[in-house]
Hints:
By secondary structure, chain A is an alpha+beta fold.
Amino acid sequence: MTDTTDTRSHMPLGLAQRGYTGVIQHLAAKQAGSALSDVELESRLIELGFVEGARVEVLHEGLVGRDPIAVRVDSITIAVRRREAMAIIVA
Amino acid sequence: MELPLLHLALVGTPNSGKTSLFNALTGSRQKVANYPGVTVERKEGFFVTPLGRQVSVVDLPGTYSLRGRSPDEEITRDFVLGKATGEIVPDLVLCVADSTNLRLTIRLLLELKRTGRPMILVLNMFDIASRRGITVDVVRLAKELGVPVVTSIAVRKGGTADLLALTDEISAKLATEPQENSWRALSVSELRSTQREADRIIADCVSLPARPDTWTARIDAVVLHPVGGLIVLALILFFMFQAVFAWAQPLMDLLKSGFDALGEFVHATLPEGLFQSFLQDGAISGVGSVIVFLPQIIIIFLFILLLEDFGYMARAAFLMDRIMGGAGLHGRAFIPLLSSFACAIPGIMATRVIDNKRDRLTTILISPLMTCSARIPVYTLIISAFIPAKDVWGFINLQGLVMFGLYAAGIASALAVSFVIKFFMIRDYAPAPFMLELPDYKMPRLKSIVIGIYTRAKMFLVRAGTTIFSMMVLIWFLASFPQPPAGATEPAIDFSLAAMIGKALAPLLAPVGFNWQIAVALIPGMAAREVAVAALGTVYAIEGGKEAAEQIGQVLATKWSLATALSMLAWYIFAPQCASTLAVIRRETGSWAWMGVTFTYMLVLAYAASFVTYNVALALGAG
């Protein structure tokens, strides 16, 4: 699933700053440290449209710890905490 | 022969405009109840198709999948699968989609198809999609999905005509053979491939313009700004508080004088006696004292529904999530807690927006700690009687400062209780992550708002009203029997069961500085907190009750010590004795146990706070 032609390095969306744009490479629920089980977290992310190939843009950040973040995922906007966003690997 | 009732079910993702479609189809012919055994709101409505077919339609809770990860979503799944207890299998499922945002709904529809239920895809808000330059090849979409597709504009008159016609057409030829259900919970890879399939179909049938909704982006630039957003939120809240307290007051006064006049009328018309007393003191003033809060409840819900329909609620949750997270509260708990400042009843009802069970329960348990408006008469009375109206540090009014302190103490204790709940429950219940769609802003529609307020006001009057009524009958009975002997000079209440209970409770309440009169006043305070003021008046045999609050104040100032007064204020920060709140907690949690837990913990806190306050005050010489 790794895109070797991509020159940008892969990073979790949870570390992205406001204004970041990228494309989802894969989901890595294990890395997130979420309270949810890996399967549950991955399922929920997919249900909200976080699938491979989707374009993401970090639109807004919260005040405390720049958390949560509001992410544009293709045609919709999803609010998610950075902890859960760590499972979304983008480039 | 008349055709049997046709059963429809509305399914869709949150924010798909399902509810506005439901309102457009059924108007005010709606029944709001709960599903048996759970506290999920069940909305059913009725209408007649152009061909005269009687239809019942159920608005199912919004969901992104059939996995059923919350009680709401389980209902949707079980209902569609025909497994919901006491429910009829729907003849036809209407899958409702926001036409501007099809990705998630098409995926849900592909999953729904596996249940084998006859289905229609309704492309709702089609006008907004057209305006944004989104075009949908409806014929091709129907072919690709293998499901009839129809467009609708729920908020426009006649905007559902195509849907109604299609419903008639399909219901005429509904198959009677058993339908095959091949649904089972999807694995992660199946989920992923369904989403891929949905994206492929959308790419084939829908052309999206490159410009997203610019209005939403512009508003969000301000409203979701880390600092500016919080300021906007604070302004909205300030305005809302103003409205709840200022706008509602004239109406509340009007209702109150209406009930008083009705009571007077009954008093004047009926012969002196038990029946007269029952109607005036029990039924009319009792039920009246609660119905008086209807304007506040309507205003609170007006704001909540407006902000919800506009799309702001999700933003408020976004802004408050981390701030409230420190105390173990979910971002979505913010609005229910806010509503609780008016009254815990609408606040607890509003916790339905929280999908996680634990977060919802925590919010319900602490809602009654928010200083509700019914405590204000009690606070005002005691503060004006015991706290001098002098300035401290030259500019702060001491009375105002005490009032503020009481509000702050309520909020602080709510956060503390939430923290304790988090500490004790975290081991067996994972905290819910905050994952929430921020929908595009939409102009709220008057019709939806009116129907929303109407159904909630009706529910408040019917449900809380019946509970209150029975409580009031009980309290009136306790305060009236046994009757005083002929020629007795003391107030009638001295001879009643209420006085006996008060005197029996007095030794228990002595350590917190309460006398038997206060104990008696706390009993009618069960029905509505502010009734305690009128009850104190009755006990101290003052004519005029609440209207003569100043006068009661003077009497109290001579009969109570400052320590007792402060103890009473501390008690009312927690004030566990509100029967209607307890009844709503029972209904919303579906459990007597949680009602008991709430009552007990608030009672313990009230007692402890009063005990400490009283004894500290005594030690400082305020006895």
